[in-house]
Amino acid sequence: MKKLFALSLALVMTLSLAACGGKKTEAPADTENKTETETETPTTGDVKVAVVLKTLASEYWGYVEAGCKAAADDLGVDVVVVGPGAESDIEGQVSMIEQQIGAGCDAIVCAPNDAGAAQGALQAAIDAGIPVLAVDTNVGIAGQTSFVGTSNVDAAYEGGKWAIEQAGTDAKAVIIYGQEGDNTSNMRMEGYEKACTEAGVEVLAKLSGNNLTDGATKAMEDLLSAYP
User: Fold this and answer.
1) DSSP letters along 177-210, please?
2) Which helix (H) or strand (E) holds 87?
3) 103 and 6, same domain (yes or no)
4) Neighbours of 158 (CB within 10 A)
5) What is the tens place of the pLDDT at every residue in 195-211?
6) Quick one: 37 exposed, middle or buried, by C-beta within 10 A (0-12, 13-18, 19+)?
């Protein structure tokens, strides 16, 4: 829930930023005799924000999509939410980023499946004057407007310490991580393994669940079979 709140907050921040930087109606040349209420003000109706998520084919990211649309309605901003069919489709997500930039978005929010792969396309957006805000996984490029998310190493480290408290230091552990090669998964493994190392808990094996419930279930079944 905290993660969802952070992502929703990130979108609101970005939509507000885009609205502030949106197109303005030109004021008449003679404004000396106008009152404050008569002067033209910026509008948000013509501001378009692109949101490129890791995928739209999961329950969690479906909630994020709903939050994006709710924020758009609240702020009166045009928001387009897209995402590939799976978090493993890195190239597909990069293509979506490029498509949204080409379509003329005023700001872009991205939860990259692979930060390194997405950097080129997002840097092009920054170079074109488009605000870029990363959520969930940091892109980490110069000129990026902001990153909103958790410290995955620290969060996994705390989770590892809690798990060890429940199981005891004489227990053995296995790790089921998310997408193979994903920055977020790597950082979470790092934090969890740090907690195990400090407590002297042996990590027997690590398997990818491909960020899918079925994938994680299969990985757990295989691990239980290998380490009964």
Assistant:
1) ESSTT-HHHHHHHHHHHHHHHHHT-EEEEEEE-T
2) none
3) yes
4) 14
5) 999 999 999 999 999 88
6) exposed
Residue 40 falls inside a structural domain: no
Domain end position, chosen among 148, 165, 186:
148
- Note the pLDDT tens digit of each residue in 112-137: 998 899 999 999 999 999 999 999 88
> β-strand 172-177 against 146-148: which pairing, if any?
unpaired
Higher pLDDT, 111 or 9: 111
> Does residue 221 lie within any of the structural domains?
yes
Q: Which of 5, 8, 114 is nearest to 51 (CA)?
A: 8
Q: Global pTM?
A: 0.70
Q: Residue holding tokens 């928001």?
A: 79
Domain total of the chain? 2
Does residue 156 sit in the same domain as residue 140?
Answer: no
pLDDT of residue 45: 65
Picking from 148, 183, 211, the residue at the C-terminal end of a domain is: 148
Question: For the domain that residue 106 is a member of, what is the CATH number?
Answer: 3.40.50.2300
What tokens does 30 get? Answer: 């003679």
